[in-house]
Automatic annotation (TrEMBL):
<dbReference type="InterPro" id="IPR029044">
    <property type="entry name" value="Nucleotide-diphossugar_trans"/>
</dbReference>
<keyword id="KW-0328">Glycosyltransferase</keyword>
<dbReference type="InterPro" id="IPR001173">
    <property type="entry name" value="Glyco_trans_2-like"/>
</dbReference>
<dbReference type="Pfam" id="PF13439">
    <property type="entry name" value="Glyco_transf_4"/>
</dbReference>
<feature type="domain" description="Glycosyltransferase 2-like">
    <location>
        <begin position="3"/>
        <end position="119"/>
    </location>
</feature>
<dbReference type="InterPro" id="IPR028098">
    <property type="entry name" value="Glyco_trans_4-like_N"/>
</dbReference>
<protein>
    <submittedName>
        <fullName>Glycosyltransferase</fullName>
    </submittedName>
</protein>
<dbReference type="Pfam" id="PF00534">
    <property type="entry name" value="Glycos_transf_1"/>
</dbReference>
<dbReference type="InterPro" id="IPR001296">
    <property type="entry name" value="Glyco_trans_1"/>
</dbReference>
<comment type="similarity">
    <text>Belongs to the glycosyltransferase group 1 family. Glycosyltransferase 4 subfamily.</text>
</comment>
<dbReference type="Pfam" id="PF00535">
    <property type="entry name" value="Glycos_transf_2"/>
</dbReference>
<feature type="domain" description="Glycosyltransferase subfamily 4-like N-terminal">
    <location>
        <begin position="319"/>
        <end position="493"/>
    </location>
</feature>
<keyword id="KW-0808">Transferase</keyword>
<feature type="domain" description="Glycosyl transferase family 1">
    <location>
        <begin position="504"/>
        <end position="667"/>
    </location>
</feature>
């Protein structure tokens, strides 16, 4: 707890602390006197004998600065990373079972790291009956209703009067942002939500728990209109600080849509004045105050100290590369950068964007004209369109560096060239093993321009990097950083689980004792799912209880269903369609197959390994990078179905071998491909490039 001149409310709060029921293992109380001048220090000292209290001093005003001071003191005591740090205010009175409830919360949600509790109002004076329906009580007073269901919660709804965070994020280096939150003067709101949203970007999950309750004291002047409008203004300032630049087209550093929005609010306010509708008049004043706060921060606030990275590509569908780009954004946020995904529209983008928004990963529309990719007719006209129409949109992101993901040969080169035209440095990630390609003199000239600003290249596999360099080495600067950074897997989500195996088999009507091979991949030519059906036909002679699970959708689904029917295999081929939560399916398999004709990496292979499922893949670049000399799987010939059937049949016939292979694969996934390992490699790659 931080307290600045809190002597008026602290006695009630500390008396309530004296009545707290003690949780198993005890508890400690750290209070930072943040430059008080009202006798707060003497008051705290008077409770030293009644509470497990330690008082700290931070003379520079700023709630977040004071909380960081407390964190340094707390972290100096050795504790497990799942220990719970509870944050509260000097005017928030807890219920007697508060700490017991927080302990129960920590035990109920072992995989989560950020928690919000219920915050009820403690009114010094009853608010006017008309007020509460017209204002956001959460933003204004930091209240959270106990009626909110327990479980996952948007991290921006975790308020500082009653929140808890496990020790691990702070041990990893996260701290409160000192540029936001109360500091003794007019300030930008976001004391705790800046942190909780940033932690969400770094992969720490948030939950709500209604049992942990405090009553937040609301003073008489805080129900007055001037105070509430000032709060709206501060909220607007905080919103500017926390929003990603470039998500919307801007005019004078402000999203264009805000200008007509302000004009409409002003017009509606004028109508309410004329009609005498006090409620509507106040609502429009609140909205205008919020917008004015945003404008003020855009024009007068301190600009963010963090560098911004734009991640973009010539993307046509939601696949492994796009998922990797989203994970890269999380890594960058955890490393202290700002990151935004700029993508072309494709089927499923809206739903995916909404899911990412819950994690505070920003996706913005970025679809500049292209001239390298696709049809090169009228290529000079297309290049000028890219230059004149694409450059303003790219500059709107205010990026310090552009990350261009190459999914195939020149797919991404137009944006790379555009970044150089905008004098923006760039890095490239390579997500496939490209075949040999020749370039015309026209292309070669523009490629030299495009690659002039490239500071680094990483590929998801050694094969992908080698193929890329065979095409582009002559265009790269000798000083460009080169690296291989594999795709990651969340080993906390993808894990062996007998319960998940049983549930998945029940869901997909797969007999519990049957053998099951499966492929998690798009039903597209690159993945060659027709070969998996052919493999099933060959293996069922030896294993009559063998099933094939095809998890994914794509253009080949109808042809594959027809193939299964023609071979008499329809009852034994299970089409699941697209599965968003693949970790709920993987453990149901006895062997995972990837029959690709080419791969950049093969994310499904390491996901299977993380789930303790033996991984089998064709011996092609990308898959070979993972499974060569890997105890967690094996490679099969890419063009010899009989040899592949023999190798997989021998594996299916040996349960002990499959179990050993699955356990070894899990260890490899943790040591080589976990988010922690790959995240460190990504941070090291960017270090010094900006």
């Amino acid at each position: 707890m931080a307290s600045r001149n809190g002597a008026a409310t602290l006695p009630k709060v500390l008396d309530a602390y004296c009545r707290l029921q003690v949780p198993d293992g005890g508890w400690r109380l750290l209070i930072v006197d943040n430059g008080s001048s009202d006798g707060t220090g003497a008051l705290l000292a008077s409770y030293a004998g009644r509470l497990p209290l330690r008082c700290l001093q931070e003379p520079v005003a700023g709630k977040n600065r004071a909380l960081n001071r407390a964190l340094e003191a707390a972290l100096a005591t050795p504790e497990p990373d799942d220990a719970l740090y509870i944050f509260t205010d000097d005017d928030a009175t807890p219920e007697p079972d508060w700490l017991l409830q927080w302990q129960a919360c920590a035990q109920a949600y072992p995989a989560d790291s950020v928690f919000g509790g219920a915050i009820l109002p403690d009114w010094a004076a009853p608010p006017p009956a008309w007020l509460l329906p017209l204002i956001p009580t959460g933003l204004t007073y930091g209240l959270t209703s106990p009626a909110l269901p327990d479980g996952p919660v948007f991290p921006g709804l975790v308020w500082g009067a009653n929140m808890a965070v496990r020790r691990a994020p702070f041990a990893a280096g996260h701290r409160f942002e000192v540029g936001v939150g109360p500091n003794g003067a007019d300030y930008a709101m976001g004391s705790e939500t800046e942190l909780t949203r940033r932690l969400a970007m770094a992969g720490y999950r948030a939950s709500f728990y209604h049992g942990a309750r405090v009553a937040h004291h609301i003073r008489r002047h805080q129900v007055e209109i001037d105070y509430i409008l000032q709060k709206a203004w501060r909220f607007g300032r905080g919103q500017f600080r926390q929003q990603q630049r470039g998500r919307f087209a801007e005019l004078a550093r402000v999203p264009r849509w805000m200008w007509p929005r302000y004009a409409l609010e002003a017009l509606a306010w004028l109508r309410a004045v004329v009609s005498g509708d006090a409620g509507r008049r106040f609502s429009h004043r609140w909205e205008m105050a919020y917008l004015r706060g945003y404008f003020y921060e855009a024009w007068h606030g301190v600009p963010p100290a963090r560098n911004t990275v734009l991640l973009t590509s010539y993307s046509g569908e939601l696949g492994g590369m796009e998922l990797r780009m989203a994970q890269e954004a999380r890594y960058l946020q955890a490393a202290g950068y700002q990151a935004v995904l700029g993508l072309r529209p494709f089927a499923g983008l809206t739903a995916w964007t909404q899911r990412l928004a819950r994690e505070q990963v920003t996706v913005a529309a970025f679809d500049p004209p292209v001239f390298f990719e696709g049809n090169w007719r009228w290529r000079e006209v297309r290049r000028w369109r890219t230059r004149w129409f694409g450059a303003p949109r790219l500059r709107a992101f205010k990026a310090d560096l552009v990350h261009v993901a190459f999914c195939w040969t020149t797919y991404g080169a137009s944006v790379l060239w555009l970044a150089q035209q905008c004098r923006l440095p760039a890095v490239i990630s390579v997500h496939n093993a490209f075949p040999p390609t020749s370039f015309s003199a026209w292309h070669a000239r523009l490629l030299r321009q495009a690659f002039a600003g490239v500071r680094g290249v990483y590929a998801v596999s050694d094969s992908a990097l080698a193929h890329f360099l065979a095409l582009y080495r002559d265009y790269l600067s000798p000083t460009a950083r080169l690296a291989v950074i594999p795709n990651p897997v969340d080993v906390a989500r993808f894990r062996p689980s007998l319960a998940t195996r049983l549930q998945a088999r029940q869901r997909w009507q797969l007999p519990q004792q049957a053998l099951a091979i499966g492929t998690v991949a798009r039903l597209a030519e690159q993945k060659r799912p027709a070969l998996a059906i052919g493999l099933l036909a060959a293996l069922r002679v030896r294993f009559p209880d063998l099933y094939l699970v095809l998890a994914g959708d794509g253009p080949l689904e109808a042809a594959l269903r027809e193939q299964a029917e023609r071979l008499g295999l329809t009852p034994w081929v299970i089409f699941t369609g697209f599965v968003a939560e693949v970790q709920t399916l993987m453990p149901a398999l006895d062997v995972h197959l990837l029959m690709s004709r080419n791969e950049g990496f093969g994310i499904a292979t390491i996901e299977a390994m993380a789930c303790g499922v033996p991984a089998v893949a064709t011996d092609v670049p990308g898959s070979a990078d993972i499974l060569t000399d890997c105890p967690g799987g094996l490679l099969i010939p890419a063009h010899d179905l009989a040899a592949a059937a023999l190798a997989i049949g021998d594996l299916l016939a040996d349960p002990a071998r499959r179990a050993a292979m699955g356990a070894a694969g899990r260890e490899v996934a943790i040591s080589r491909y976990s988010n922690e390992v790959v995240g460190q490699q990504v941070a090291a790659f960017y270090d010094g490039l900006l």
